[in-house]
Write a structure and sequence with these properties.
By secondary structure, the protein is an alpha/beta fold. It is 52% helix and 13% strand. It has 2 domains: 193 residues, no CATH class; 105 residues, no CATH class.
């Protein structure tokens, strides 16, 4: 049996929603408080894991006192991720209050974010807690908003609570020996291992994990192609500007035309190869008419847009709509 990777966001959600005792134990460790009762507000996975960017892979929880906790596994880190987390926290908190409502009824919003890749490279800390505090005195302004960031890449840095560290070790474990050691340290780790093994034997869970993993790979291909396109455009613009400044337009005209044509041809070829690779990886049939249209396209930007859309469309015809 191939054990599913608990660091994959869809597996992470399935594990915590199907086995709420694991979710409660994790939150007790991270938040440092006893939790007698919790309610999962979004236990199902809604949306197409490949094509729907709005698919919900976080776990939204309400505690007995009304506190709402959003738990999420983030596979990749990117520049706007911190802003996204802050926006979600603020939106969730503000969403409690109806027009004319009483502020006294507001309850805390807490985000618990696990990251596989570091969100903050310079913050070499496994468990960080972000709150609203005065910059110099650290006086707490309000306890209504908090973000717990758990950067798995820094699990070896001293200072974190052992219960929190055990959960990170479980998520990162690659061998039976590591899981055996965790099971001897805490019974909940043995339960987590059994739950993951049981989940891994579920055909539907395995299908969801496979589809999600494929989607992430396809997105990575499209992202690399787009970044390479941007780098090529930047390099080309810089070289052309430098040459044009130093030489007469008449002398350069022939050389530039030849170089531009060659580079453009190479860029078009690279875009087309990437597009066909993504479509083939997704098992989408490319008709002869579509192949002719691909080959006839002379604008790299158009091919770039098709390449990005190829990750999400359900048929090749949708690329042209």
């Amino acid at each position: 049996m191939a054990r599913l990777d608990p660091k994959l966001d869809v597996t992470f959600k399935l594990l915590l929603t199907r086995y709420p005792e694991l979710l409660r134990s994790m939150l007790e460790a991270v938040l440092g408080q006893r939790i007698d009762e919790l309610e999962v507000l979004n236990p199902t996975i809604v949306g197409d894991l490949i094509g729907d960017k709005s698919v919900e892979l976080d776990v939204r929880v309400r505690l007995a006192d009304g506190t709402r906790v959003d738990v999420e596994m983030q596979v990749r880190a990117y520049r706007a991720l911190a802003d996204r987390f802050l926006y979600y926290a603020a939106r969730d908190y503000a969403g409690q209050l109806a027009r004319g409502g009483d502020y006294d009824g507001l309850t805390p919003t807490i985000l618990v974010i696990w990251t596989v890749a570091p969100l903050f490279q310079d913050l070499e800390q496994y468990h960080s807690i972000f709150e609203l505090r005065e910059r110099r005195t650290h006086e707490l302004f309000s306890s209504q908003l908090a973000i717990h960031l758990l950067q798995l890449d820094f699990i070896g840095v001293p200072g974190a609570d052992e219960a929190v560290r055990r959960w990170g070790r479980f998520l990162l474990a690659e061998s039976e020996a590591e899981l055996d050691a965790l099971a001897t340290e805490d019974p909940i780790m043995s339960a987590a291992r059994s739950a993951l093994d049981e989940l891994s034997q579920d055909p539907e869970a395995a299908r969801l994990a496979r589809d999600r993993s494929d989607a992430l790979k396809l997105n990575a291909i499209a992202l690399r192609q787009e970044r390479e396109h941007e780098r090529r455009e930047g390099r080309l613009e810089g070289k052309l500007e430098g040459k044009l400044e130093g030489k007469l337009e008449g002398r350069l005209e022939g050389k530039l035309e030849g170089k531009l044509e060659g580079r453009l041809e190479g860029e078009l070829k690279g875009k087309l190869e990437g597009l066909l690779a993504v479509l083939a990886a997704r098992g989408l049939t490319v008709s002869e008419d579509a192949k002719v249209r691909f080959a006839a396209e002379s604008d790299p930007a158009v091919l770039g847009r098709w390449l990005v859309r190829a990750v999400t469309v359900s048929s090749v015809d949708e690329l042209f709509q």
